[in-house]
Design a protein that fits this description.
Layout (H helix, E strand, L loop, with lengths): L4 H19 L4 E7 L4 E7 L4 E7 L13 H17 L5 E4 L8 H11 L5
Parallel strand pairs: 1-4
Antiparallel strand pairs: 1-2, 2-3
Helix pairs in contact: 2-3
Amino acid sequence: MANSKRTLFLKRRMRVRNKLRAVNSGRMRLSVHRSNKNISVQLIDDVNGVTLASASTLEKALGVVGQNNIEAAKKVGAAIAERAKAAGVETAYFDRGGFLFHGKVKAVADAAREAGLKV
């Protein structure tokens, strides 16, 4: 039986997450989710199971509501870096989920790096 696109995506996501767990040394995880309409990013403490900070294109404060392009991704990346610094986090692992590291996902990571977060 052929695997569906969703099944392959979930396998890819778990493969990435398990590799991050294997090398985790107390660092936070910067998790990205991209849908057809929005981009959201969370800074997660896996040890305590708590989300420390988040940013999304659904937030009116970022001025990119409903946009799903690279410019919106850059703003979300910069916002999560600022919020991470406010939460006292300097470094994090980048969890791309099942998404390929290019386009909007890469723009989020690059913007977070430019804003001072070591990803």
